């Protein structure tokens, strides 16, 4: 298939591009390297330095014989988007090319406006571009479980059947996002649903939970094919952060009471889920939503699991409850449905002791690269514009 991987230089995008290329699909990676710029702004580096994209693609070709093309450009430039889609006529578009961090978006007005403009305008340009150049193409969009927030009712997969004053309808599940970043994805979802309803587009919104992990089948093939693994307070997801904290012997940073519960998944399962979506496209006019995670944990449960992995590895891991920099519920009901990907055949890589031990061992190998200043959270939800100068 002809597959576009938008944001193919990133944590999820690069392994995804290799995964599809390995199956023999024709892959074009699109990126504007904005993530590398955001890292430079805040003095943040991934655990292991990531070679430039062209070098990684060259290495991939050398190791596997598979070619991948690179197109450098910004999705907020509609001419770039239209030319890209006209030239390549993709059958599937996997869209990761967004600012992915809640704390980044909460640094102040400038970063909130940037996050929403970048994410929403880029996606909107794609919707128009698809309608214009490749209307039958399947649009696979990385959304987030954080669009729903933590409601006191069960979370359905995208849609909710309601009965109100004796009448029935099917509506998008109510959203209660927890940051301006998560809200950007809510707005994207609304725009995509509208494009499906009005233009007959086919789309799948993957509402993904926090991802953990460092390796995939392809990253292991040769040196230089690794992905960008963040452990810092801005781009690092909680389990990846805890692994690094355990590895360097600093206390785990549980925010507040630690009862915050989310649906998590292994990086390897992100690839599997996206592949299942590509191989089972939605119908024309269908806005399909998959809740993309495999297991639910509270932050406290994750901390306990890391502590146990630490003692198996001979590390004493201390768990600290620090003041929560976010405004979020720390004890709440959480029951999110996630059966649609399983129905398509997802075989999860669960967070077993063995999986945890392996990740901790890999992270420990690079412990000398860790910048201890990137551990404690710096962005406060209540600070409004005041954080901008603090960073
Ligand atoms: N947390 C801690 N300690 C830390 C870091 C985080 O207790 O050191 C807590 C947070 O307060 C939160 C939970 O862990 O309650 C998850 O935080 P996270 O930073 O792992 O995840 P989040 O900010 O929600 O964002 C991440 C990705 C984002 C994706 C989202 C899926 O960065 O791209 O959309 O996970 S979800 O959380 O389901 O919305």
Count, helices? 13
Q: Please, what is the average pLDDT?
A: 97
Sheet of most strands? 7 strands, parallel
Helix/sheet category: alpha/beta
Could you give the count of β-strands? 14
Which hetero ligands occur in this complex? sulfoquinovose-uridine-C1,5'-diphosphate
Fill in the CATH topology. Rossmann fold
Query: Termini, distance in Å?
Result: 43 Å
Q: Write down the overall geometry.
A: globular
Strand order of the main beta sheet, please?
3-2-1-4-5-8-12
> Gyration radius, to the nearest Å?
20 Å
Q: What percent strand?
A: 15-25%
- Uncertain runs are none
Q: Could you walk me through the main structural features you see in this protein, from its secondary elements to its overall organization?
A:
The chain is of the alpha/beta class. It has a single domain, classed as Rossmann fold (3-Layer(aba) Sandwich), CATH 3.40.50.720. It is built from 13 helices and 14 strands. The strands form 4 sheets. It has a 7-stranded parallel β-sheet, sandwiched between helices. It has a 3-stranded mixed β-sheet with strand order 9-11-13. The radius of gyration is 20 Å and the shape is globular. The structure holds sulfoquinovose-uridine-C1,5'-diphosphate (USQ).
Topology:
Elements: E1 2-6, H1 13-22, E2 26-31, H2 34-42, H3 53-64, E3 68-72, H4 78-88, E4 92-95, H5 102-105, H6 109-133, E5 138-144, E6 159-164, E7 167-172, H7 180-199, E8 202-208, E9 211-212, H8 238-248, E10 252-255, E11 261-266, H9 267-279, E12 287-292, E13 295-298, H10 299-312, E14 319-322, H11 340-343, H12 353-365, H13 387-390
Parallel strand pairs: 1-2, 1-4, 2-3, 4-5, 5-8, 8-12, 9-11, 10-14
Antiparallel strand pairs: 6-7, 11-13
Helix pairs in contact: 1-9, 4-6, 6-7, 8-10, 8-12, 10-12
């Amino acid at each position: 298939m002809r597959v576009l991987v938008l944001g193919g230089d990133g944590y999820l995008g690069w392994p995804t591009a290799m995964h599809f290329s390995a199956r023999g699909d024709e892959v074009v990676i699109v990126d504007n390297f904005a993530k590398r710029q955001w890292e430079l702004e805040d003095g943040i580096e991934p655990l292991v330095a990531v070679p430039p994209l062209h070098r990684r693609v060259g290495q991939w070709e050398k190791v596997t014989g598979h070619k991948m093309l690179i197109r450098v450009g910004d999705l907020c430039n509609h001419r770039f988007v239209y030319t890209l889609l006209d030239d390549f006529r993709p059958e599937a578009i996997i869209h990761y090319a967004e600012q992915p961090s809640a704390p980044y978006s909460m640094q102040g007005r400038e970063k909130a406006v940037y996050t929403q403009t970048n994410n929403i305008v880029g996606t909107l340009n794609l919707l128009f571009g698809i309608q214009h150049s490749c209307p039958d193409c399947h649009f696979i969009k990385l959304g987030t479980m954080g669009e729903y927030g933590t409601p006191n009712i069960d979370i359905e997969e995208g849609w909710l059947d309601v009965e109100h004053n004796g009448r029935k309808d099917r509506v998008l599940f109510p959203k209660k996002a927890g940051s301006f970043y998560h809200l950007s994805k809510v707005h994207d979802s609304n725009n995509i649903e509208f494009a499906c309803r009005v233009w007959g587009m086919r789309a799948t919104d993957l509402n993904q939970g926090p991802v953990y992990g460092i390796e995939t089948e392809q990253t292991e093939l040769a040196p230089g094919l690794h992905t960008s693994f963040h452990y810092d307070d801005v781009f690092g997801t909680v389990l990846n952060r805890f692994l690094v904290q355990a590895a360097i012997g600093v206390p785990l940073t549980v925010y507040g009471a630690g009862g915050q519960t989310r649906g998590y998944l292994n990086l390897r399962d992100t690839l599997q889920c996206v592949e299942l979506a590509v191989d089972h496209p939605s119908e024309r006019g269908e806005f399909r939503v998959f809740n993309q995670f495999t297991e639910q944990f509270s932050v406290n449960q994750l901390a306990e699991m890391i502590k146990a992995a630490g003692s198996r590895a001979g590390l004493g891991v201390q768990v600290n409850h620090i003041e929560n920099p976010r405004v979020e519920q720390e004890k709440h009901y959480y029951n999110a449905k996630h059966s649609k990907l399983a129905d398509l055949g997802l075989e999860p890589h669960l967070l077993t002791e063995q999986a945890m031990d392996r990740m901790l061992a890999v992270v420990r190998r690079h412990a000398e690269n860790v910048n201890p200043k990137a551990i404690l959270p710096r962005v406060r939800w209540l600070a409004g514009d005041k954080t901008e100068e603090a960073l």
